[in-house]
Here is the input.
Amino acid sequence: LILNSIFDMKIAILPGDGIGTEIVAQAVRVLEALGQKFEMETAPVGGAGYEAHGHPLPDGTLKLAKEADAILFGAVGDWKYDTLERSLRPEQAILGLRKHLTLFANFRPAILYPELVGASTLKPEVVSGLDILIVRELNGDIYFGQPRGMREAPDGPFKGAREGFDTMRYSEPEIRRIAHVAFKAAQKRGKRLTSVDKANVLETFQFWKDIVTDVHKEYPDVELDHMYVDNAAMQLVRAPKKFDVIVTGNMFGDILSDAAAMLTGSIGMLPSASLDANSKGLYEPSHGSAPDIAGKGIANPLATILSAAMMLRFSLNLPAEADRIEKAVKQVLAQGLRTPDIYEAGTTKVGTVDMGSAVVKALRSEEHT
Here is the structure.
């Protein structure tokens, strides 16, 4: 009992919308199977938050997120909310959490398990052994830049016509802090860092390149190269194993990490962590709410389960428990169990709950070996 009290940590469970409730439920089962004492409290977010309290990020949900040691997040969004004003759409919940909690560093690992080589659309010799870490800046860039909106064009060839506009911007402190995170991550891996920008046409990313280059002076043991985002997208498909750690801005990171996800066979396999300066984090699968398959029991819960493992490692300081979950996932894949997104001939197709049950069973069987 005394040992259990050491691990009395509070986790905010925010399932969200669509398949979010289904996949988070399986991750919670896996956490409970570890035998540790976690305080887990659930709150609505996204479309569920709007339905319950008229806002995608209700005050009570934000309060819980601030009080918790870590946040396990499902997914938000549904087509039925597309007609709402932008500030009330489900996606504003995740943006709001990143902003209010200063979650500026997004870790998105893209690892191809040997058992899933056949699930990738690329040739085995191109992707076998793939292990990339994308470090995405989360608090700046065009997603948060001001001014933004819609108006009548004040000048130019289409003066007076309606136009939409957003502002891409980064401050030096924002770039420096994410660069430090990326260099430190590279030091723990292959000591190679690729900074992705568009410095040839964007002033914002010429500035980005200059600052990353300056920070590099503090990490002489890490090899740094710079790559334009269009070339990076091409190289991810042509020769993905040439990358070790990639650092880039908010928008480019959003796009490239989804591209990297498909190298592994399915975005349903990719976890992610969004961290503040003190390693408090929000953990979520890299995919969305998939309203088209919600309620069908076929969603892949493994990205969420692996996100829970990242939570244990980075925010709750329980690396051994994180290792146990990751080992259990590998064991289940080795057994040939597959959700529809990673199914191939010769394997066994299972649903969301059965996949979660298999991971729980693997954890429990490990306890008796």
Observations:
- The CA atoms of residues 180 and 215 lie 7 Å apart.
